[in-house]
Design brief:
Structural class: alpha/beta
Strand content: 5-15%
Strand order of the largest sheet: 1-9-8-7-6-5-2-3-4
């Protein structure tokens, strides 16, 4: 059995005696800060002086400082900004304020695993990664429950890093559901692989390929959209609720039979070999190097791919069809959605 820890394994008082700086106030940042504040912790939010989030954090009853000032005053510093900004913000605003015995934390291991952040040897370094978007983390905490999380200690300089990390997980409500012990390497590599091969890259490519196959065969794009895109949520919700067996129990026997006989023809050995190649590129740093260099170059390829994919026929068809369904809430909150997977 995996090592899962709950409220009874974590001492909240350890975090209540610390001054905690939450760097960033996006989807994850606001949830961490508010949950800890409600749990009696001394929280300050670190934001640039011109950040649009400053007013929101202050309206939520939180103290706001510059990132540098918050980091200098804090005992525990949690970085909750996008991965690509970690190195710059750490070097400029956080590292100068680090002192022996402090704790530096992240909610994803990318910057630590790929040495974008190289902390001094005299501080604790750890990760708590909730397995939900920030708005869900906050909502469920307010309802008296929590979401699961992964946690890891990257560096234990004080001998108390594990206890403090579990205390942090309890402060944001995750030990209510249970937190799974892992390593920075395991969390980072599995997270990147899941995003690329299944959750984002795999699913979007599968949906688009199915849509294009039907349209090329002469079927109406609107019908192709419903069958390959719209109904995906129905199937995923069933799996989320009860696993693949529950999904198969809930669908028709015809659909279940098609699942068994046709699925392996799509995800065949060639697809599995590509998955293994993607995993190797994550493990050996090839993907991380490409993404770091892409950001250093101003993200030209990333922006071009974003524009190209936004103009695909499936996006135009979907926009028109979703207008027929006013019960759908498709907010234009790209930043919040993006930050919520971290």
């Amino acid at each position: 059995m995996p090592n899962i820890y709950y409220d009874s394994d974590a001492n909240l008082e350890l975090m209540q005696t610390k001054r905690i700086a939450v760097i960033g106030y996006g989807s994850q940042g606001h949830a961490h800060a508010l949950n800890m504040h409600d749990n009696g912790c001394n929280v300050v939010v670190g934001l640039p002086s011109d950040s649009k989030s400053r007013a929101k954090a202050e309206a939520d009853g939180l103290q706001v400082m510059t990132t540098a000032a918050a980091s200098e005053q804090a005992d525990v510093i949690m970085i909750l900004i996008p991965d690509q900004h970690h190195r710059e913000v750490y070097e400029r605003d956080i590292r100068p304020g680090l002192a022996p015995g402090k704790m530096l934390m992240t909610a994803h291991g990318f910057s630590l695993h790929y040495s974008q952040i190289v902390p001094p040897a005299d501080i604790d370094v750890a990760m708590v990664a909730p397995k939900s978007p920030g708005h869900m983390l906050r909502r469920l905490f307010s309802e008296g429950v929590g979401v699961p999380a992964l946690w890891a200690v990257h560096q234990d300089a004080t001998g108390n890093a594990e206890a403090l990390t579990l205390a942090y997980a309890r402060a944001i409500g995750c030990t209510r559901a249970g937190v799974l012990h892992t390593t920075i390497a395991e969390e980072t590599e599995t997270d990147l692989f899941g995003e690329q091969a299944v959750l984002c890259g795999g699913i979007t490519s599968l949906i688009r390929a199915g849509f294009e196959t039907l349209v090329e065969a002469g079927y109406q794009p609107e019908v192709a959209y419903f069958e390959c895109m719209h109904e995906m949520k129905l199937i995923v919700d069933l799996m989320y609720q009860g696993g693949m067996s529950y999904m198969r129990y809930s669908i028709s026997d015809t659909a279940e039979y098609g699942d068994y006989v046709s699925g392996p023809r799509i995800i065949d050995e060639r697809a599995r070999n590509e998955m293994r190649k993607i995993l190797r590129e994550i493990q050996d740093g090839t993907f991380a190097s490409r993404w770091i260099l892409e950001n250093q170059a101003g993200r030209p390829s990333f922006q071009a791919m974003r524009r190209s994919n936004a103009q695909h026929q499936i996006e135009h068809v979907g926009r028109d069809l979703r207008a027929m369904m006013p019960w759908l809430n498709a907010p234009n909150k790209k930043t919040e959605i993006a930050e919520s997977t971290k």
